[in-house]
Design goal:
alpha/beta, 2 domains, seven-stranded mixed sheet, 13 helices, DegT/StrS_aminotransferase
Amino acid sequence: MSKKRQIPLYESHIDKNEIANISRVINRKSYWALGPEIKDFEKRLASLSRTNFSLAFNSGTSAGHALMNYYNVKNSEVIVPSFTFVATSNVVIMEGGKPIFADIEEETFGLDPEDLKEKITNKTKIIMPIHYGGNVCKIREILEIAEDANIKVVEDASESLGATIDQRPVGSFGDSSWFSFAPNKTISTGEGGAITTSDEDLYSRSKLFRSHGREGDSKYFESNSIPDYVSLGYNFRMPSMNAALGNAQLDSLNEIIRKRRQVAAYYDLSFKNLEGLSVPKMKKGVKGVYQMYPILVNEGKAKRDKLQSYLMSKGISSRVYFEPVHHTLYYRNLGYGECKLPITNKISEKVLCLPIYPDLETEQQKFVIKSVTNFMEQVKNV
């Protein structure tokens, strides 16, 4: 009996540079924390996002948490999508704020500017759009609305490092941004995240928050003086080995993105005339990075779920990104279950993300395409 093939949803790209970078940190036997790799990584991220500052964190969630702490969202409202990973709204609650869910639009699956306007109140302090799946949301329209209402914009760019609109990168539009470097992101540090901003006060205070409120943190292992602790904080630091991995990943970023776009283009071509299926679209001027490849099964949830089960039987991983946050038990218990978000609900019942990563082999992708096509052509109605 032949072994059933297994095609994962994602796989991190690595080569000898990643191994060499991590080995250097291990072999020096010191500065596994607060090593020079972290500053190098931060400088490169700031340059990539065209901001003055960047701070590396041990996760995207930690980075988002630090931003909500800086903006002091306690007893304030923060407008977010529900069509996102739960961390986007969790970080608001962690700092005593109230997430207000706005609906998404069907082109980018980002915040709908029109619904966003309706959700603004005198308690709104921040608008936090996400750039979904490597795409770019309607960020310019959102910025206009925010400027008129004198509200800060924080980009959740966790899924879209390297994406641009009219050659301007995500992470450069808002007052600040946060990124994730989890294993399924454009680049990965295993676990990790970062803030980017041109606000020096935000940078300085978030640096304290990241490391117990300790001053002079970068010199902690070099100085005999006793450091002072000037504010509350956590240990949200990124380890040196993770930053070393991130630097190697950044060396390959252009190639990683090129390969992701190549895989996406083949999916687009193969599915463009397949009845009952819709594929991702990019706005004019957008160059996405395809952190995910979301298809929509137009008939809805029942058929989408059957397709997912069928793919699993063939050894192909797929995933629903995302189930709405307001449908989760925690948020239902907070009273969010009755939120009226019709587009969020509709898209979440149709969406299914297919395998996409730089080293997805052509034969593997052909098998995914064949499997999806066979199912859609043979199962006409559910």
